[in-house]
Amino acid sequence: MVDVASFMKVTFFLLNIYNKILLQTIDMKRCLNVVCFFALVVAQIGCKKENANPEKPAVFSLNSVKVNGVNNGFKYNNLGASPTITLAFPAKVDPASVPAGVQWRSAAGSEVPYKVTYQNENRELTLQPESPLSGLTFYTLQLSTDLKSQAGGNFQVPITVELRTGLDSTNKFPVISDDSLLTLVQRKTFSYFWEFGHPVSGLARERNTSGDVVTTGGSGFGIMAIPVAVSRNFISRNQGLERTQKIVSFLTTKAKRYHGAFPHWLNGATGETVPFSAQDNGADLVETSFLMQGLLVARQYFNRTDAAETALRNDINALWQDVEWDWFRQGQQNVLYWHWSPDQGWAINQPITGWNESLITYVLAAASPTHAVPKVVYDQGWTRNGNFRNGKPFYGITLPLGPDLGGPLFLSHYSFLGLDPRKMKDGYADYFNQNRSHALINYNYCVENPKKYYGYSNRCWGLTASDIPGGYTASSPTNDRGVIAPTAALSSMPYTPEESMWAMKFFYYVLGDKLWGEYGFHDAFSLDQPWFANSYLAIDQGPIIIMIENHRSGLVWDLLMSAPEVQGGLRELGFK
């Protein structure tokens, strides 16, 4: 290799000669001969310099990467547990440098031991993990400048290859009968309310990280689950009675109420209101209706004539009769309002209109023995004079009511934990058909999977309100974030028994190592990201227990529908 000083001298010498030739108007042939002569001189100088100073080893790079024989750049998804990675280089790689220069790691940073074989005179490396990789996990293969060629050259530019394994579809738990699986899911889910219920009030914590914050509506769901637990022998009748009385006593003596209605959240130890938002620091009529639904179910279940059960019924009746449903018309308007605050008044000003989860609010308001509302409030407020109709087909299924594609599935769950849609028809809908259509549209949307999220299938479906990475949202076909919530499919069991059972088996057997925990299924997951919540939410746990039971025996439906006031309220609103 020519050093800079020698090269410059020769170059100037050649230019000098060339200029002289041009000035003397020598012909082109002579000019070419001169240039060739001096090119030979430069070459000879170069050879002498190379011999004097040997060339340093050249850096080298990566020719190609293939995973399982496919070249897809530097990102690979849906891999099996034992992928084969082939790296090709232009130079012969020094095997001694490979452990430091090629590192395979999980997203958590732990090293993945691998075995390596060499081909093409060490220009190709084939890597395989020594033990199977975990499913639905991110890994990286990092090539650093510590990698060297046999000539001593360094790898030129660090490279990272991203790898993500796909779903491990093997069963994580022994297979049991479908009936046993239903019971197992109900029992484990019930433990959220039973074992994790607030120690002072017995009410349900909002979520598994809520401390003293308890939820009014979620507690109503937990109360409804107690008769299920007794009937399934998870607890005794006396235990169920004792817990229900503890809750009712707290609601009667400590819990804050506003015109008989409860706030969204309470402090489970003191009964004070925990604001849901700055202006939502008073009554929440919809949450109150979910609580009252549960209390009426308990009243109908604990129907013996002994002193304890009689006292419980009397206490529940007092709470039920104290709710001033008609006051929430905000000045005798023909609509009910959701919120009222002692210092903000009607500032939120949110009317309760259909179609959403709040049908139970109007049924109980019409059913109240002390503060009932007339049918015109339901007609103009809830149905909006019939404007809550839909009537359009989606996936070949006509949806009678509600938003296009049905909205989140909790719309077909919360009010119908106790209201039996099999026995509800009016001029707008057959309500079992409404809820079944809603669930089937949600199912078919997930099977079609228009956004192409990884993992959606006929076994992995269900969009409803749940936790999502970094927050919470009401997932639906029109708000699809790639997150599946087990409560969506499982609480639709009465409407889609076959499709819901497919989902339950998939959640338990295939995803159980990541999704199944202390209180049953965690709140939500995404196979696309992948992400698994570590949370449990009362409003998602309760419907799983109750709706599975309604599918199995109709118990909770039968209990609420046996209440004479509820029957009267339904008749008042025009249900047949």
TrEMBL record:
Residues passing through the membrane, by range: none
Domain SbsA Ig-like: 81-154
Domain Glycoamylase-like: 351-563
One Pfam assignment: Big_5
Signal sequence annotation: none
Keywords (A to Z) from UniProt: Signal
Taxonomic superkingdom: Bacteria
Full protein name: Beta-glucosidase
Lineage, top ranks: Bacteria, Pseudomonadati, Bacteroidota, Cytophagia, Cytophagales
